[in-house]
């Protein structure tokens, strides 16, 4: 199979879909790999690195799309790429369709085979291709939140760890999944007081067992959320509904109950956000303020640490890329149920239930 790795063109997205190590494995399995010139530079991988691994370097993104059977990316295609996608071409990347009707319609129109990293699902319900980026984003959420709590960027002026004689900052984490656990771990490491909320008591028990005593758990409901937003300095949105739009746990009217300079980092922005006032931002212009509350809603947070993110991502995607290249998507998905869960849109048909429900489309058909 011919596999193409284009350069990401989303704002400040420095990750790349595959490392030279990944290319080496594909070439070893007798596949051809085309990499767009400069695609890996943001992650610290250069054309010569890919060439040594056996890839052929192409000058333009158009050439990569035109000459490849499968495209391996990091982020969803943006408008400039829609017309480059070919009928029947496999696109293997993060899509997050539920947050974008325009993207969904464009991929239906393209008649490509869209396999989404974020919905590949193991038998135990875990999401192996989403996990490493959730780990990165969860940890980054605290780094960024701590930065934007500083007064020069309109935050409350709170140091999360406090100092002797001054109470530490307070962090509220919504969701005890991968993002929430990593955020709580980082915040606790800085010395902040952390409250982590979820509707899954099993998860809360696990958190209670592994976290230090200054991380407390509480059942998530509207009453408790309204109570805690009044006293916490940094709020992390880490809620995920597989393949579906995130629920609005914080509504617009709640902002008035927060203290001026409170910071919200909505990691769920890729799935529409768990805060009603969330709108996607970029690393170039990461925040905006509504009712004196600072919103940080960068839709590709791991793109700011591209070396770590790219290596972590290729570690988990490569086995699936090899299956798709070796067997073709139909046979690979037939034999690997986890991979088949990644099928979202296939040759013009939505085949993932939650996406169909989000946009009131026809019931998905079985492939």
From TrEMBL:
GO molecular function: alanine dehydrogenase activity; nucleotide binding
SUPFAM superfamilies: Formate/glycerate dehydrogenase catalytic domain-like, NAD(P)-binding Rossmann-fold domains
Positions of substrate binding: 15, 75
GO biological process: L-alanine catabolic process
Transmembrane region(s): none
GO cellular component, one term: plasma membrane
Annotated keywords: NAD, Nucleotide-binding, Oxidoreductase
Domain Alanine dehydrogenase/pyridine nucleotide transhydrogenase NAD(H)-binding: start-end pairs: 149-297
Residue ranges occupied by any Alanine dehydrogenase/pyridine nucleotide transhydrogenase N-terminal domain in the UniProt entry: 4-137
PROSITE patterns in the cross-refs: ALADH_PNT_2
Active site, UniProt feature: 96, 270
Binding residues for NAD(+): 134, 198, 203, 220, 239-240, 267-270, 298-301
Reactions catalysed, as given in the entry: L-alanine + NAD(+) + H2O = pyruvate + NH4(+) + NADH + H(+)
Pfam family, one: AlaDh_PNT_C
EC number: 1.4.1.1
UniProt similarity note: Belongs to the AlaDH/PNT family.
Protein name per Swiss-Prot or TrEMBL: Alanine dehydrogenase
